């Protein structure tokens, strides 16, 4: 008997029951315990590659587990610096959900939980159009394992990230799509800012798209039954842990992307809430604004790709900002406790710039040529004006997300979605 037939025998028929409250529930499925590829112990798999990783970093989630008495784990969707992501089924509602299993004892965990709590309260009364572009936390629970506590968030299942399409295209996204996206994300930012939440990590990896045809979720579940995910076993006995391999998105791309695939802003691990003043870094270095340039042209405006160490990379990145935007005002440097680490006494940057004569105008022209995109002289000027309104050194001169919604570069597209 071949493996496929053996696994088919393991599939139970879907069984329904009713809870005491009358809600229809689904019996958990029995997933295969054989037939998978075992990753060698010498190979680091996915989250193991983080320098800080230990087997205790994450709760030991396994495929087939039922967590919090209602969420059965179906397969792994991915991983990040602070979480592993899992496709699950809510057995009480018989619905697919996405579960975020968060690393233990990490500052971003509490930041994200607090941000979702604030947004959940505001969403009950808000009529902001940006609300529909923000991912909601459907549930939050905590579990203890060993001597550690672990937090979990439950979300609506979503599809591919914008970064996925930027990497495929290698030249960024279509101009009209970016204008629509800019309008949607500005509405989103206006909404969360009104709630006192600053996202601080707006980037293509954190904007996911709604799934066009949710049959792909069922296909993923069945694929796990027929071809169990590869995994690595660490340790032995009761202390053994398992690292699972992410399952690729099943089905053709057209089932994932279509008219229903609107953008959703996710991942509030870097978010700051309330009215406190912050002096520490609150945005990953590689994604310091602006994101719109990345979406449109497929490259960072202020890259960090040619330095031997982090401090030099910071100096060079700031030097490039000065080269393209002009120098910051002296008052800006006076209030910075580390200003002289990056700027000389006369306000000139200490870092190096690969092309000192480059301007925003010349960079846009060369980037459009590289990506084979067309902008008229008027539209190029309008786009750079839009950028400069957002890219100012001092917050006093910076327009708000709500004000940018009326900027001429995107206002003409604002009603298209």
TrEMBL record:
<keyword id="KW-0067">ATP-binding</keyword>
<keyword id="KW-0808">Transferase</keyword>
<keyword id="KW-0723">Serine/threonine-protein kinase</keyword>
<dbReference type="GO" id="GO:0043484">
    <property type="term" value="P:regulation of RNA splicing"/>
</dbReference>
<dbReference type="GO" id="GO:0005634">
    <property type="term" value="C:nucleus"/>
</dbReference>
<dbReference type="InterPro" id="IPR011009">
    <property type="entry name" value="Kinase-like_dom_sf"/>
</dbReference>
<dbReference type="Pfam" id="PF00069">
    <property type="entry name" value="Pkinase"/>
</dbReference>
<dbReference type="InterPro" id="IPR051175">
    <property type="entry name" value="CLK_kinases"/>
</dbReference>
<dbReference type="GO" id="GO:0005524">
    <property type="term" value="F:ATP binding"/>
</dbReference>
<protein>
    <submittedName>
        <fullName>Kinase-like domain-containing protein</fullName>
    </submittedName>
</protein>
<dbReference type="GO" id="GO:0004674">
    <property type="term" value="F:protein serine/threonine kinase activity"/>
</dbReference>
<keyword id="KW-0418">Kinase</keyword>
<feature type="domain" description="Protein kinase">
    <location>
        <begin position="71"/>
        <end position="410"/>
    </location>
</feature>
<dbReference type="InterPro" id="IPR000719">
    <property type="entry name" value="Prot_kinase_dom"/>
</dbReference>
<keyword id="KW-0547">Nucleotide-binding</keyword>
